């Protein structure tokens, strides 16, 4: 009986490991700053920007480089209180990528893809 339980537990663990990841990475915008300013994701992950501004200030989370099919990856404008997201292409190479807000040049962040 104990062996059967162990076998089932092992099987479940193997299945969960084999399933493709649908990880999510979250970045906040508050005080016209990205928090955290350095965030980590894997290729294929969804990246979300939560705009936590108390005032009506829109932000974007936009890559400096053309990471998404020849154009920057971007949430597009996200109004205060809302969330926007994009999906990193599955082909994104490991490395560091700079991000900015299209409306506030001082808002900078770094994505580490590993
Ligand atoms: Cu902004």
How is this structure best described in words?
This protein has 114 residues and is of the alpha/beta class. The protein has a single domain, classed as Immunoglobulin-like. It is 15% helix and 34% strand. It has 1 helix and 8 strands, in the order H-E-E-E-E-E-E-E-E. Strands 2-1-4-6 form a 4-stranded mixed sheet, with no helix packed on it. It starts with a helix and ends with a strand. 24% of the residues are buried. The site of copper (II) ion (CU) has 6 residues, from loops.
Defining key terms:
single chain, 114 residues, alpha/beta, Immunoglobulin-like, four-stranded mixed beta sheet, 15% helix, globular, binds copper (II) ion
Topology:
Layout: H1 2-18, E1 24-30, E2 33-35, E3 38-41, E4 46-51, E5 62-63, E6 83-87, E7 95-100, E8 108-113
Parallel strand pairs: 1-4, 3-8
Antiparallel strand pairs: 1-2, 4-6, 5-7, 7-8
This protein binds copper (II) ion.
Question: What's the short version?
Answer:
By secondary structure, this protein is α/β, with parallel strands linked by helices.
Q: What share of residues is helical?
A: 10-25%
Mean pLDDT: 88
Q: If helices are DSSP runs of H or I spanning 4 or more residues, what is the number of helices? A: 1
Name given to the CATH architecture? Sandwich
Number of domains: 1
Overall shape: it is globular
Sheet-strand content, in percent, reads 25-35%
